[in-house]
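Query structure, 225 tokens:
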């Protein structure tokens, strides 16, 4: 997915605040991060402390190959990569100690950020399990939704299926500081690695775009030779 052709536009109202009779979006605290993301201006978020954000990692720390994936939970190409490539990658390379895998969230739209708040909820202990659900059910929670309210409620339901309590889900969705920090973290990472589309793969420092498992296997096997 190219950042210039994304749904939802921007990250206004990053955190969802539950209110009587519905919900509203808080935009004030996320405004600076939103402006920076829309403008691609890393300097606007340079002063945001992002050290609290946990890298989501699978595999052995001593693996000979490090692979990083930049992906968005709302990106159909990322969904296809996850559903058709990632599981084989995990079985053949990550679980066998050959590849250390790092997943980095991309927020091209507000819904991807909301989804990440759910996936990273409760310390991120369920992150990769929730990520599986977000990609496998992308059409159900996102594309078949008729409104933003539907999307938010669908994410709540998904979080409950993953074992999160209602109180925990609401606290995570309403965490404006976390939303703003995640937005700044994404901007810094995307700028440093020149990420303009998803999925972007970085394998031992070399950047690649979306590919089939067969193509990925050739690259990994060459790195492991």
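Result returned for the query:
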């Amino acid at each position: 997915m190219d950042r210039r052709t994304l749904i939802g536009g921007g990250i206004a109202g990053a955190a969802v605040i539950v209110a009587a009779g519905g919900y509203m979006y808080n935009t004030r605290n996320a405004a600076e991060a939103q402006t920076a993301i829309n403008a691609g201006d890393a300097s606007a978020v340079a002063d945001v402390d992002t050290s609290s954000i946990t890298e989501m990692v699978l595999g052995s720390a001593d693996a000979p190959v490090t692979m990083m994936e930049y992906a968005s939970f709302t990106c159909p190409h990322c969904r296809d990569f996850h559903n058709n490539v990632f599981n084989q990658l995990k079985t053949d390379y990550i679980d066998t100690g050959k590849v250390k895998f790092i997943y980095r969230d991309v927020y091209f739209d507000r819904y991807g950020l909301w989804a990440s708040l759910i996936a990273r909820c409760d310390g991120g202990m369920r992150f990769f399990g929730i990520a599986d659900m977000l990609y496998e059910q992308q059409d159900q929670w996102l594309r078949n939704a008729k409104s933003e309210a539907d999307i938010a409620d669908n994410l709540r339901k998904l979080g409950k299926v993953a074992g999160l309590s209602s109180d925990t889900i609401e606290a995570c969705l309403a965490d404006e500081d976390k939303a703003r920090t995640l937005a700044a973290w994404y901007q810094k990472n995307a700028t440093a690695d020149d990420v303009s589309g998803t999925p972007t793969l970085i394998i031992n420092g070399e950047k690649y775009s979306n590919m089939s498992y067969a193509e990925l296997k050739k690259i990994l096997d060459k790195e492991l030779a």
